[in-house]
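Subject: Sanity check before I submit

Could someone independently write out the structure tokens for this chain? I want to compare against mine line by line before I put it in a report. The sequence has 117 residues.
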Amino acid sequence: MTTKSPRPLTTRTPRTLHDALGQRVAWRTETLAAQLRSPDPGTRLDAVRVSFDLMKTWRGDHAVLVALVADQLDTDDAELAAETVTVPDACRAIAEPAREAGATGPSGGGVRAGPAR
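---
Independent answer below. Compare away.
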């Protein structure tokens, strides 16, 4: 009899919490930062997944989350490392529209915080 990893089920709780927090991005960021600092690899894996969802959904300064997610690359946990390695490339794709908007200057309307559209 093989046992499946409990990790996919654990992601529901953090996701539910972050869905409930909605637009409270600062609270969500603080919660994720604490989870990314956890000694438990499963908690950090959940936080990596939810952090990516937050970063791709809400514009803003996610430097703290990006740095903490990058810290997860230095782990012995294969599943956590595999999930984490996908985030930097995805973040480049997310940042591209902001980089282009910033290059156009103030006349281009700038970049506002809020849900990505």
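---
OP: Matches mine. For the report I'm noting this point. The radius of gyration is 16 Å.
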